[in-house]
Design goal:
Oligomer: single chain
Number of helices: 24
Strand order of the largest sheet: 7-8-9-10-11-13-12
Strand content: 5-15%
Structural class: alpha+beta
Largest sheet: 7 strands, mixed
Helix content: 40-55%
Mean pLDDT: 92
Radius of gyration: 31 Å
Length: 614
Amino acid sequence: MSLWGGRFSQASADEFKQFNDSLRFDYVLAPFDIQASRAWAEALLSAELISSAEQQQLDQALAELAQAVTVDPQLPLQSQAEDIHSWVEGELIKRIGDTAKKLHTGRSRNDLVATDLRLLCKQFTQQLIRENLAAVQALLEFAKRYQTSLLPGYTHLQRAQPIVAGHWAMAYVQMLQRDVSRLRDAGKRMDVCPLGSGALAGTTAAIDRQALAHELGFRQACENSLDGVSDRDFALDLLHIASTGMMHLSRLAEDVIFYCSGESGCFAMSDRISSGSSLMPQKKNPDLFELLRGKTGRVLGHLQALFITLKGLPLAYNKDMQEDKEGLFDALQTYQHCLAMLAFALPELSVNQDHAAQQALLGYSNATELADYMVAQGIPFRDAHHLTGSLVLLAQQAGVALEQLDLAAMQQVCPQLQADVYQVLDSQYGLHKRQALGGTGPSAVKLAIKHAEDWLHAAEAASKHVRQARLADADKICELIAYWAEQGENLPRDKADVLQAIQSFAVAEMNDEVVGCAALYVYTTGLAEIRSLGLFPQAQGKGLGAELVAWLLWKARELGIKRTIVLTRVPEFFGKLNFKLTVKDALPEKVMKDCDICPRKENCDETALEYLLK
């Protein structure tokens, strides 16, 4: 069926219909169109535009339709409908007759498709965050496995300095962390509901658009109907993030392809992720990584296509905007699939450690250490740089490594060199000197892995159940605190105190219901304490407590806090989260603030633990 036609005296030509119709690709919006329609029916009831019986009839039919689509996502493709909105309405009319014709009261396909697309993008954003986190986890496992394995580092594709393979992997962890940050930011910006904007000028129905937005899981309703129906910035945001993320995967893939090549041989792929040649029996090709690299251009192309589609469009909706979907859907699915393949492939990738260590020592990669040694002897760096270059040339002419040059020969170039220069030229010397934050030294890499694991635990919590508390959560937080205060596990807190400290709280949710909370209290000395941690009984044993702690530890790190403590009667729980035992005498701020008013002050049975955020 068509949602228009009264002023037309002729049917659409088949050629036009094939060119115009969008069901062949927008059918994937069916679950979101049904979700939006159920919320709209509820809004129409509140506006007294349909009866309670009609709303119930619509809701039941839409729920049945949603179930049918869940069973067969391609069900809409069995029809000749123009688009997904026509299909949904047509199916409702088949099921419940004239009542279905009331559903479109006060709304337009323009605000409906904008809402559907945002709902899909919100879902994709969360999926992409999860896929990125899985890839980060795989990179961290690789980094830990090869934390001290030497690898040649390159600039200009020339051997430069030795690094460790763990440091290489952690560089890509940093990139994917930024991608997750971008996805979160984009998610916040797209969390605005256009439904109720009508075709362009708003709806005449007395709809509570804020309540409608909240019903659909949006933070708020859009504040301008023209912008609401024509905004596709959120799609551009996701395409830009997908393009940047694919660029990161492409760079990683290029590294792997090079390190796996016969010219390098530092990496090896298992047979599970390799392919062969139809002609040359000896070949083992890195097709998986070549495809990661190759699909990047496809995603970047979709970004440019949407930019060009939108750049000349007047307000509000234009049919050109139908072109926002195919490229967007393909780009997001491609990015998601590539992230999943990276997480799958990394455990199948190994470092040929002995060979890689030998390769790392070639190309006079210890020359910088020699120049630094000269600086320590009082030679200005620019002169040391020149003298080291002369020694490299001397070694090249002799066909030996720097450390193989005779001391007397080196002293002819630089008299300040002593016998201890040879320990400086040892491969491990330079590696272990690079211990500053961000360096490739083993202790620096170990610290980077710890930071990334803390971040990952917090990010996983935030992607599942944990979020920053809001004012609307105060009653639930008070209920939780009161519950555990009655059990003797928490000190009671009144609502005014909770409201004043709401920024310090995080909450855990299940099925959109707050079921847990915890707070990060910062003392005047910069020490922080995790307190008021509690879950309702039905939420226990599901990992939510650990998620709350991980989220608060990351918040503490972002605040620049170096030490976080907890006083608890369940030290084994915090021990599993890498908290270490400490003594209460080392916690003067805590003792002065709360212990003096605690009813168990003279018979305290709590254990003090700390987590060092270094």
